[in-house]
Amino acid sequence: MITLESYLAGSWRAGRGKAAILVNPATEAPLAETSSEGLDFGAACRHAREVGGPALRAMSYAERGALLLAMSTALHAHRDELLDLAVANGGNTRGDAKFDVDGATGTLAAYGAFGRELGEGNVRYDGEGVALGRSPKFWGEHLLASRTGVAVHINAFNFPAWGFAEKAACALLAGMPVISKPATSTALLTWRMMKILVDESALPGGAVQLVCGSAGDLLDHLGPQDVLAFTGSAETGFRLRSRESLLRASVPVNVEADSLNAAVLGPDAAPGGDTWRLFVKDVVREVTQKAGQKCTAARRVIVPQERIDDVQAELAAALAATVVGDPAHEGVRMGPVTTARQLADGREGIGLLMDEADVVCGGPDPVRDAVGAPGGKGYFIAPTLLRARDAATASVVHRHEVFGPVTTLLAYDGDAARAAELVARGEGSLVTSAYSDDRDWTEAFVRGAAPWNGRIYLGSDKVADVAFGSGAVLPQLVHGGPGRAGGGEELGGLRGLSLYEQRTALQGGRGIVQRLFSR
Ligand code: NAP
Q1: Model confidence, pTM
Q2: What is the residue-averaged pLDDT of the chain?
Q3: pLDDT tens, 253-262?
Q4: Is the beta carbon of 156 within 6 A of some atom in ligand 1?
Q5: Which domains does the chain possess?
Q6: Which atom of ligand 1 is nearest to the CA of 295?
Q7: CB-facing half-sphere around the CA of 447: CA atoms within 13 A
Q8: Which of 45, 211, 345, 383 could form a disulfide with 181 if both were Cys (CB 3.0 to 4.6 A apart)?
């Protein structure tokens, strides 16, 4: 069995004590073990601040961009091996694995290109300068300079490649060194990525360190120039952001948490039309891709009352036909959820939804016919569609995220404002998708839904053959959402750098303020 060591202060280091075991969720066969007990996280933070930070800050944006491109290239050269690890440890189909691994290399490459565009400087100005008095000589600007601490990244289990890369890309381009901690259950892929980067000398010393296993006392070492970016459950996010030591030092904490995302069908979208077909295809993908274990997956499907039977019939037919099993087997379209705990939580969650919704297909019972899974083994949940008995009074569906291949149909009266109200009952989402070719309906819907969403995906006949689904998080657009989605914001092009920069207002003579740094 492989032992996953952490890469700290320039060396691979094994923890002591009882190791956590990583398994193949389709077969429950053990794959690797890891422990971080006894590792010196204080020394790792100092190494980042004293070695990694100065090296990165001495580099121009263009050089940091070249570093990100080199990381992307090094990882892409090992693509097949990385995909195999995602299949084995993540329960991913090959398509799911590409979504994660190619998402990682693509995001690194995108930020590499942003770095090239920023060019030779290593400090940025934010927006336009402004004359501060009656004379144009007294001038103000906002400077964006790298923070001088360490960026600690704590990631969720469902995107071990992309989660590592998307956070690292922003921090490194901003000039901050990273300590990254993947979720333990799926850390095999991140560990292998780090091995590749270290073996191929793709990283300056101290720029990126990796913690395999629990975070231990890592967060106790953070101070006022450091940053914490967390992705995971709302509960863990709440516990981390309310730590006294982080509050006292005003450590910026970005939280990407769980979310009751929605897909909404406009009343104009008729069965068989391009917009309708896009909607059905997207919802089926949202339920089955990565066995529904995506933070962006649509958990609520909001449909006009007069269309709900047609939608239900099409979704149920497609979901029931999805071949579930060990994704290493030919023909399997959906794998297991990632851990025994996820399986238990998912089945319990479906049970909670059943208090107010009827099961249309799937359900909480064990999957007995998973292809290629040894008898009774594997953490499989059937693709599950429920239908709320009364959308007006349903509440669990707006509160409880079942992190698996599960979604619930809710009827509405076709009014855009009413659909937006239902979306808002999730109290803050990462993404909502709306499918309509009616501009007035779409405008009214976006007006109502935008304050409750980090992103809105508009499906229409114009994009039916080019859009790639609401689940894909793109480096150019922000990712994050208000309220229960964590209130965070990542990516969004250069917006993603701001967590790692201090914005400082400069005021003085226009000549000196504007000439301080080359632009
Ligand atoms: P989780 O249990 O909250 O764990 C997330 C991460 O936090 C893991 O790396 C975990 O490490 C670590 N962690 C847990 N307790 C900690 C503590 N006291 N101190 C420091 N680190 C701690 O969440 P999960 O089960 O991995 O992820 C599933 C959830 O993440 C879902 O609800 C999903 O919606 C959400 N998610 C959100 C996004 C987004 O972008 N908004 C993306 C992906 C997933 P260990 O694994 O070692 O315990």
Answers
A1: 0.95
A2: 96
A3: 999 998 999 9
A4: yes
A5: 2-258+489-515 (3.40.605.10), 261-474 (3.40.309.10)
A6: 34
A7: 10
A8: 211
